């Protein structure tokens, strides 16, 4: 009763990722963690409940449900989950069932036997990291068809995180917390210890160093803050640019809020599942995620869907749709997900030389159930400098200017990601803004993007030349990786003012824009045609007046956002 499903082409990522080299057959005794997603019940009911609690106009706005209520609502039918569990356990894996997934730990040998497959070990050419994954064909028994959506964790390479640091260069002007306070009008804004904000890092355990954090706080003269809770493994000996940037700016901008740090071994499916199984007080209120990868290259193995890569993208699309539903659960519980829009323009990291004639959306930014944040930079001729912190006394710090799209074309190291999903349709909260944009001059030819899709980013924030303290040194970094924690910190301040969780916040922000469009600094110059590596790209999205797929509604004006929010919510 074995059926050949597909040759694994998750390894499309291999083509885009020459960094990973096959070194050997994976050792049979090696232990693996994987997650089996079983079908969710009541997806329509989930979506309706999620939209109601997220929509400021709904009588149910803000009436978040508990994790156990939500998990019960979407639980896989017991008989079906038991069949899958029995099958997994018969192969010797140690598994525990959740509402609509099964988490397992097993050996390479047992996985190979279960799927009649081979696993190989791959090594990263720079970091030396090892990954064991399926290689070639695999099979599921026909009896599992329709009972397993995906098995996640056995295929695909870790996605490179976005942040990359460089040494400071003389004559450069830096973005520091004082820049954010001055440019985004948040002088005197106060957080609250009852609001919890967390940076999350995926696939491995990138860390920050406490010494760096202490120096950063001293150098930037921000109110002192600590990371009071770490969830997941942590290797403090290896601070990395991404995690360091996230922690430093989330804590500095969301001053007064409680800071957590979360590492997730897996990817988006595992993260959403872990959030929903962490207990009612085991999760942060606001999550900042600075990770992104092509929406059509999120390949996981499945008995139902064809594989990704050369064979087509249906498997990846099904995976993205499932994770979007997972994010709806997270939002229904009141947690705010903030995602950076990606650093490689409208083409993304799987098309770094813009060889495709069309744009390629990135996930999770392309999910309508997160707040996606793009990047801006100041137009060089408009920059004002200043700042009284020790760092700004010794270096030139930016205090303000006119924002344009952050792009390699205009001197940044990255280009703000943006575009339209090929999986999720335009959500109603943004439909009028998106309709105005696609009928205007900012979009490429109709065949280059999906005009019925969810448009992103929703908002933007500075993404160029941030000072961070890393490994005992002052470094500079560019990225939507900076924009996301900055925005997440500002949302933490909004949540403190509101006096509780914001949940899925995008509908509220579009409502604020409609009530007072000066609550956002509109960005009207620049585009995201370029990638990180090339500017020879003929297609992408231009910034225009109003919402656009390079900078969304624009960058935030904190006190104006706050005022409009209080009015909309009758607080
Ligand atoms: C365009 O997006 C819609 C969702 O709005 C999707 O159903 C459709 O398949 C997408 N088209 C392509 C060519 O991917």
UniProtKB/TrEMBL annotation:
InterPro entries recorded: Peptidase_S8/S53_dom (IPR000209), Peptidase_S8/S53_dom_sf (IPR036852), Peptidase_S8_Ser-AS (IPR023828), S53_propep (IPR015366), Sedolisin_dom (IPR030400), Tripeptidyl-peptidase_I (IPR050819)
Organism: Cafeteria roenbergensis (Marine flagellate)
Amino acids binding Ca(2+): 522-523, 546, 548
Signal peptide: 1-16
Active site residues per record: 242, 246, 481
Cofactor binding note from Swiss-Prot or TrEMBL: Binds 1 Ca(2+) ion per subunit.
Catalytic activity, reaction form: Hydrolysis of proteins with broad specificity for peptide bonds, and a preference for a large uncharged residue in P1. Hydrolyzes peptide amides
Top-level class of the enzyme under EC nomenclature: hydrolase
Protein's name in the database: subtilisin
Entry keywords, A to Z: Calcium, Hydrolase, Metal-binding, Protease, Serine protease, Signal, Zymogen
Keyword Chloroplast on entry: no
CDD domains per the UniProt record, alphabetical: Peptidases_S53 (cd04056), Pro-peptidase_S53 (cd11377)
The organism's place on the tree of life at top rank: Eukaryota
GO biological process, one term: proteolysis
Cofactor(s) listed: Ca(2+)
SUPFAM superfamilies, per the entry: Protease propeptides/inhibitors (SSF54897), Subtilisin-like (SSF52743)
A family per Pfam: Peptidase_S8
EC number: 3.4.21.62
